[in-house]
Design goal:
By secondary structure, the chain is an alpha+beta fold. Helix content is about 70%, strand content about 10%. The chain has three domains: about 200 residues, no CATH class; about 80 residues, Up-down Bundle (Single alpha-helices involved in coiled-coils or other helix-helix interfaces); about 120 residues, Histidine kinase-like ATPase, C-terminal domain (Heat Shock Protein 90), CATH 3.30.565. The chain has 15 helices and five strands. A hairpin with a 6-residue loop joins strand 4 and strand 5. The longest helix has about 50 residues. Keywords: ATP-binding, Kinase, Membrane, Nucleotide-binding, Phosphoprotein, Transferase, Transmembrane, Transmembrane helix, Two-component regulatory system.
Amino acid sequence: MADTAWEALRGKPLRFFASLWPLRTLTYVLSGAVIGALCLVWIPVALVLGAVVAAPALTRPLAALERRRVALLGGPPLPDPHRRPDRPGLIAWLRFRYREAVTWRELAYLGLHATVLLALDVAAVVILAAPILALGSVNLTASRTATDPAAGVSSDGLDVVVGVLVAVLAGLALLVVGFLAIYAVPLAAIAHAKVARLLLAPGPGETVRMLTRSRARLVDAFEVERRRIERDLHDGAQQRLLSLGMMLVGAQLEFDDRPEAARALINQAAEEAKTALAELRELIRGIHPHVLTDLGLPAAVAELADRASVPVTVALDLPRRLPSTVESTAYFVVAEALSNAAKHATATQISVTGGLTSAHLGIEVRDDGVGGADPGGGTGLAGLADRVDAHGGTLTLSSPPGGPTVLRLELPCA
């Protein structure tokens, strides 16, 4: 299966038209025409209401919608290249936004969307509909002529033959034009999405800054994790081993004079050793589970589902092993999502679905909980988003109040 509409159209056109790609491109073009008309109306209103100064704030939702809409043609939504202002307040926010190049690229794109791209979308729809309307007009004219002798058809047989021949040739011409017209919508959609990716996606400098910030946050997160592991070892396994050593020393001292007491201490030491081993295994599993290394992502996610306190259905279609970094990132995203759904969402059912295309791994975790999840509320998703971002992927969360909560992960795995 091709990753994008352009790859599918360029590869095997007949298979392209037998798939869902034509419907997705038509949806993209039709929705683009609607949003283009909205831009045509809203941009002047935004300029007037915002007195030009607040126009970026009023037009930014449309740009955010366009970044998500390109996913209709394959691939993940475009990441938001906007940075967070250094200072609070509306004035500081506006000043910061006006200094960003992406702000002006967004305004340029919305201006194109309201004019050139709107005309492109409308033209593609008209070209697609023209052969159908023309064929209907020809059929309507022919039916009227057949039922109405006064419509101008001569009784002469030669005129009838010529009329039939002209009708057949017109029908063939319409079929050829119609076959060519079906390419209009996919090509218009691909061209529109190309412009959107060119203007709305992060530029090279912005990508470097985003990766730098993500990696800086990852370094901080790894430092926190290192300290947690050190604390767990010090407070858990180390104390267990110290207690084990003291029990063995006591058993050694009691062995000659009080064998029964020594035997009791040895039994306690054996139990302490089992407990310490279990803690070490749990700690290692939190760092990197063995099942993920040995059997891969589907088996590791299935183990997570078995240990979950909420019923979880898993449907992962992965025909081959993925790079270890991809598997590890996807595993911890799913683990965090399952943990959040059980602890915070009061969910009763969770589903984990996903699949692999030639270049991307896509996973969706959906629960029927109460919704209202906030990535900045300490759920651990912000750190996972940085980890995903550092690998060039995207992590999107949809959690309206009342649910459902849907977490989508896209990771490049080429």
